[in-house]
Amino acid sequence: MPIEANYETYYAIKLAHYEYSWGGRIYGGTNDNGILVRDFPSEYLVSVPTTPVNEIRFIYPRPITPKAFLDGMAEGHFSIYNSSTTTDYSVSSYSVQIMKSSDVPGSEEVLGSYYNTISTNNSVATEDFLTLPFYIRIEEKDLNADEKLILYINFFSSDDGYNDLCIGHENDSKTIDCQIKVPFAPEGY
Known about the structure:
Layout lengths: L5 E8 L5 E4 L2 E4 L5 E4 L12 E2 L3 E6 L6 E16 L6 E14 L6 E9 L5 E2 L4 E16 L2 E11 L7 E4 L10 E6 L5
Parallel strand pairs: 4-6
Antiparallel strand pairs: 1-4, 1-14, 2-3, 5-13, 6-12, 7-11, 7-13, 7-14, 8-9, 8-10, 8-12
């Protein structure tokens, strides 16, 4: 009989006045990467709503537990925003990975991944959003106390210079740009 996972929901945000260094990368602040939170912090914190990149990482800076096991189907979505006022773009493919990393450069390990090629309903109109889903199978992966959980997002589009299409990550609980539900196996698994 399969064991039902306990799901934790994380939201991807980027705070202007918070930076976190891990594994040779800096997350938050003026850098291209952000953080994962379990609850949206105060709406009065200055957040960065979008980043004009085609790939980004979000880290959960807190330790999960002394040791955790991930097993099941992670699910979520992320949003791409078109900041152009004149040009529509299309997204041709995207990938999402859940990784873990110790505080050592180059130590990222993929726990599960999802890749999708899209050719319909893939347009991002001017000053509008395209929200894309993902479902990632994770099979019996461990996460130690000295490792952090990372969400990696990458997409390809007709915006060759990646100047107009942005990944959304605003600190707004009413309009969630990016979230992931991660399956943790029950204690004693």
